[in-house]
Amino acid sequence: MRFNKAKCKLLHLDWDNPWYQYTLRDEGTESSPAEEALGLLVHEKLDMSHQCELTGQKTNHLLGCIKRSLVRRSREVTLPLYSSLVRPHLEYCVQLWSPWHRKDMDLSERAQSRAREMIRGMVHLSYDERLRELGLFSLENRRLQEDLVPVFEYLKGAYTQDGDKLLSRTYCNSIRGSGFKLKAGRFRLDIRKNFCTMRVVKHWNRLPRDLSNAPPVETFKARLDGAPSNLI
Fold it and tell me: What does pTM read for this prediction?
Protein backbone atom coordinates (compact mmCIF):
# COMPACT_ATOMS: atom_id res chain seq x y z
CA MET A 1 0.00 0.00 0.00
CA ARG A 2 1.35 3.41 -0.97
CA PHE A 3 0.70 6.27 1.39
CA ASN A 4 0.04 9.85 0.38
CA LYS A 5 2.59 11.82 2.39
CA ALA A 6 0.55 15.03 2.07
CA LYS A 7 -2.31 13.38 3.98
CA CYS A 8 -0.14 11.88 6.75
CA LYS A 9 0.36 13.81 9.99
CA LEU A 10 2.15 12.89 13.19
CA LEU A 11 0.30 13.33 16.49
CA HIS A 12 2.41 13.21 19.66
CA LEU A 13 0.49 12.13 22.78
CA ASP A 14 1.43 12.14 26.47
CA TRP A 15 3.33 14.75 28.43
CA ASP A 16 6.62 12.82 28.45
CA ASN A 17 6.60 11.94 24.77
CA PRO A 18 10.16 12.35 23.38
CA TRP A 19 8.70 13.70 20.09
CA TYR A 20 10.62 11.41 17.79
CA GLN A 21 10.68 12.41 14.15
CA TYR A 22 9.46 9.81 11.68
CA THR A 23 10.04 9.63 7.96
CA LEU A 24 7.92 8.48 5.07
CA ARG A 25 9.81 7.69 1.87
CA ASP A 26 12.91 9.37 3.35
CA GLU A 27 11.00 12.57 4.02
CA GLY A 28 10.09 13.93 7.44
CA THR A 29 6.46 13.68 8.58
CA GLU A 30 4.74 16.91 9.57
CA SER A 31 3.54 17.16 13.18
CA SER A 32 0.01 18.24 14.12
CA PRO A 33 -1.38 19.34 17.52
CA ALA A 34 -4.81 17.82 16.82
CA GLU A 35 -6.38 15.49 14.27
CA GLU A 36 -9.98 14.56 13.52
CA ALA A 37 -10.88 10.87 13.33
CA LEU A 38 -14.41 9.56 12.80
CA GLY A 39 -15.85 12.94 13.73
CA LEU A 40 -13.81 13.34 16.94
CA LEU A 41 -11.03 15.88 17.39
CA VAL A 42 -8.14 14.27 19.28
CA HIS A 43 -5.75 16.80 20.81
CA GLU A 44 -2.14 16.05 21.70
CA LYS A 45 -2.86 16.86 25.38
CA LEU A 46 -6.07 14.79 25.36
CA ASP A 47 -7.95 17.97 26.27
CA MET A 48 -11.55 17.67 25.07
CA SER A 49 -12.23 21.43 25.10
CA HIS A 50 -11.41 21.60 21.39
CA GLN A 51 -13.97 18.88 20.64
CA CYS A 52 -16.57 20.78 22.68
CA GLU A 53 -15.88 23.96 20.70
CA LEU A 54 -16.16 22.08 17.41
CA THR A 55 -19.45 20.51 18.50
CA GLY A 56 -20.76 23.90 19.62
CA GLN A 57 -20.01 25.39 16.21
CA LYS A 58 -21.83 22.58 14.41
CA THR A 59 -24.91 22.77 16.63
CA ASN A 60 -25.11 26.58 16.40
CA HIS A 61 -25.01 26.34 12.61
CA LEU A 62 -27.82 23.76 12.60
CA LEU A 63 -29.91 25.78 15.04
CA GLY A 64 -29.50 28.83 12.86
CA CYS A 65 -30.71 26.88 9.82
CA ILE A 66 -33.73 25.61 11.76
CA LYS A 67 -34.56 29.09 13.05
CA ARG A 68 -34.42 30.61 9.56
CA SER A 69 -36.48 27.81 8.04
CA LEU A 70 -39.35 27.69 10.52
CA VAL A 71 -42.32 29.97 10.29
CA ARG A 72 -44.35 28.40 13.09
CA ARG A 73 -42.09 27.53 16.04
CA SER A 74 -44.45 25.29 17.93
CA ARG A 75 -43.35 22.58 20.33
CA GLU A 76 -44.64 19.86 18.01
CA VAL A 77 -42.35 21.03 15.20
CA THR A 78 -39.24 22.46 16.88
CA LEU A 79 -38.65 19.73 19.47
CA PRO A 80 -38.51 16.80 16.98
CA LEU A 81 -36.17 18.80 14.74
CA TYR A 82 -33.83 19.46 17.66
CA SER A 83 -33.94 15.82 18.81
CA SER A 84 -33.21 14.41 15.35
CA LEU A 85 -30.81 16.99 13.88
CA VAL A 86 -29.01 18.80 16.72
CA ARG A 87 -28.80 16.60 19.82
CA PRO A 88 -27.08 13.69 18.00
CA HIS A 89 -24.09 16.00 17.46
CA LEU A 90 -24.03 16.86 21.17
CA GLU A 91 -24.05 13.17 22.15
CA TYR A 92 -22.03 11.50 19.38
CA CYS A 93 -19.41 9.32 21.12
CA VAL A 94 -19.78 11.57 24.16
CA GLN A 95 -18.60 8.78 26.48
CA LEU A 96 -15.16 9.32 24.97
CA TRP A 97 -15.02 13.14 24.97
CA SER A 98 -17.40 13.86 27.86
CA PRO A 99 -16.63 17.43 29.00
CA TRP A 100 -15.32 17.86 32.53
CA HIS A 101 -14.56 21.60 32.58
CA ARG A 102 -17.54 23.70 33.63
CA LYS A 103 -17.07 26.07 30.68
CA ASP A 104 -17.34 23.12 28.27
CA MET A 105 -20.42 21.77 30.04
CA ASP A 106 -22.06 25.20 29.86
CA LEU A 107 -21.20 25.42 26.15
CA SER A 108 -23.16 22.23 25.47
CA GLU A 109 -26.06 23.26 27.65
CA ARG A 110 -26.28 26.63 25.90
CA ALA A 111 -26.90 24.87 22.60
CA GLN A 112 -29.82 22.98 24.12
CA SER A 113 -31.07 26.14 25.84
CA ARG A 114 -31.03 28.02 22.54
CA ALA A 115 -33.20 25.34 20.96
CA ARG A 116 -35.69 25.59 23.83
CA GLU A 117 -35.87 29.37 23.45
CA MET A 118 -36.97 28.92 19.85
CA ILE A 119 -40.19 27.25 21.00
CA ARG A 120 -43.04 29.71 21.31
CA GLY A 121 -43.85 30.62 24.93
CA MET A 122 -40.51 29.45 26.38
CA VAL A 123 -38.45 32.65 26.25
CA HIS A 124 -39.54 33.96 29.66
CA LEU A 125 -38.75 30.67 31.44
CA SER A 126 -35.41 29.70 32.96
CA TYR A 127 -33.43 26.76 31.57
CA ASP A 128 -34.52 24.37 34.32
CA GLU A 129 -38.14 25.47 33.97
CA ARG A 130 -38.03 24.83 30.22
CA LEU A 131 -36.71 21.32 30.78
CA ARG A 132 -39.46 20.54 33.28
CA GLU A 133 -42.11 22.00 30.99
CA LEU A 134 -40.92 19.85 28.07
CA GLY A 135 -40.24 16.75 30.18
CA LEU A 136 -36.54 16.63 29.24
CA PHE A 137 -33.22 16.19 31.06
CA SER A 138 -30.10 18.34 30.97
CA LEU A 139 -27.28 17.06 28.76
CA GLU A 140 -25.16 16.51 31.86
CA ASN A 141 -27.81 14.23 33.30
CA ARG A 142 -28.20 12.38 30.01
CA ARG A 143 -24.44 11.78 29.85
CA LEU A 144 -24.47 10.37 33.35
CA GLN A 145 -27.31 8.00 32.54
CA GLU A 146 -25.48 6.82 29.43
CA ASP A 147 -22.40 6.18 31.60
CA LEU A 148 -24.33 4.15 34.18
CA VAL A 149 -26.05 1.81 31.70
CA PRO A 150 -22.77 0.17 30.48
CA VAL A 151 -21.62 -0.10 34.11
CA PHE A 152 -24.83 -1.95 34.98
CA GLU A 153 -24.36 -4.31 32.02
CA TYR A 154 -20.72 -4.89 32.97
CA LEU A 155 -21.56 -5.77 36.56
CA LYS A 156 -24.22 -8.18 35.29
CA GLY A 157 -21.67 -10.12 33.25
CA ALA A 158 -21.46 -8.32 29.91
CA TYR A 159 -18.20 -7.28 28.24
CA THR A 160 -16.27 -10.18 29.78
CA GLN A 161 -14.19 -10.50 26.62
CA ASP A 162 -13.14 -6.85 26.86
CA GLY A 163 -11.43 -7.32 30.20
CA ASP A 164 -12.41 -8.37 33.71
CA LYS A 165 -10.67 -5.53 35.52
CA LEU A 166 -12.23 -2.46 33.97
CA LEU A 167 -13.98 -1.72 37.27
CA SER A 168 -12.96 -2.73 40.80
CA ARG A 169 -15.95 -3.81 42.84
CA THR A 170 -16.84 -5.10 46.28
CA TYR A 171 -20.11 -6.48 47.63
CA CYS A 172 -21.95 -4.40 50.20
CA ASN A 173 -24.48 -5.86 52.67
CA SER A 174 -25.85 -2.48 53.65
CA ILE A 175 -29.62 -2.06 53.36
CA ARG A 176 -29.17 1.34 51.80
CA GLY A 177 -27.32 1.75 48.53
CA SER A 178 -26.53 -0.73 45.77
CA GLY A 179 -25.38 -4.29 46.34
CA PHE A 180 -22.25 -3.83 44.25
CA LYS A 181 -19.98 -1.01 45.33
CA LEU A 182 -17.25 0.26 43.06
CA LYS A 183 -13.79 1.19 44.27
CA ALA A 184 -12.08 4.28 42.91
CA GLY A 185 -8.68 3.49 41.49
CA ARG A 186 -5.48 5.34 42.23
CA PHE A 187 -3.91 7.31 39.42
CA ARG A 188 -0.94 9.59 38.88
CA LEU A 189 -2.47 12.10 36.47
CA ASP A 190 -5.59 14.14 37.29
CA ILE A 191 -6.89 13.61 33.76
CA ARG A 192 -7.41 9.93 34.58
CA LYS A 193 -10.20 10.75 37.05
CA ASN A 194 -12.29 11.97 34.11
CA PHE A 195 -12.22 8.60 32.32
CA CYS A 196 -15.54 6.80 32.17
CA THR A 197 -14.44 3.99 34.50
CA MET A 198 -13.45 6.58 37.13
CA ARG A 199 -16.14 9.25 36.90
CA VAL A 200 -19.02 6.78 37.35
CA VAL A 201 -17.82 5.37 40.69
CA LYS A 202 -19.35 7.91 43.09
CA HIS A 203 -22.61 8.05 41.12
CA TRP A 204 -23.00 4.27 41.03
CA ASN A 205 -22.36 3.96 44.75
CA ARG A 206 -25.17 6.46 45.44
CA LEU A 207 -27.81 4.48 43.55
CA PRO A 208 -30.54 2.84 45.66
CA ARG A 209 -30.44 -0.94 45.85
CA ASP A 210 -33.75 -1.50 44.05
CA LEU A 211 -32.41 0.44 41.06
CA SER A 212 -28.94 -1.09 40.76
CA ASN A 213 -30.26 -4.64 41.30
CA ALA A 214 -32.94 -4.42 38.60
CA PRO A 215 -32.56 -7.72 36.67
CA PRO A 216 -33.02 -6.68 33.00
CA VAL A 217 -31.26 -3.63 31.57
CA GLU A 218 -34.60 -2.32 30.28
CA THR A 219 -35.91 -2.13 33.85
CA PHE A 220 -32.74 -0.38 34.96
CA LYS A 221 -33.11 2.23 32.20
CA ALA A 222 -36.76 2.82 33.08
CA ARG A 223 -36.00 3.29 36.79
CA LEU A 224 -33.05 5.51 35.95
CA ASP A 225 -35.31 7.76 33.90
CA GLY A 226 -37.65 8.03 36.84
CA ALA A 227 -35.06 9.37 39.28
CA PRO A 228 -32.79 11.80 37.38
CA SER A 229 -32.57 14.43 40.12
CA ASN A 230 -30.85 12.02 42.54
CA LEU A 231 -27.95 11.18 40.23
CA ILE A 232 -25.79 14.32 40.19
Answer: 0.73
Side chain identity at 113, as an amino acid letter? S
Q: Which of 80, 63, 55 is nearest to 118 (CA)?
A: 63
DSSP 83: I
Q: Name the band, by pLDDT with cuts 50, 70 and 90, for residue 23.
A: confident
Could you tell me the residue range of the domain that residue 16 belongs to?
5-43
Contacts of 94 (CB under 8 A, 6+ apart): 143, 146
CA proximity to 119, closest of 170, 63, 164: 63
* Dihedral in degrees, nearest 10, Cα atoms 62, 64, 68, 70: 60
Contact 44, 13 (CB under 8 A): yes
Q: Are 58 and 89 in contact (CB under 8 A)?
A: yes
Domain count, the chain: 3
How would you class 27 by CB atoms within 10 Å of its CB: exposed for 0-12, middle for 13-18, buried for 19 or more?
exposed
Decide if pLDDT at 153 tops 50. yes
CA distance 5 to 7: 5
- Per-residue pLDDT for 27 more than 50? yes
For residue 62, pLDDT beyond 90: yes
Do residues 59 and 103 share a domain? yes
Radius of gyration of the chain (CA): 21
Please, which residues have CB within 8 angstroms of residue 54's CB and are 6 or more apart in sequence? 41
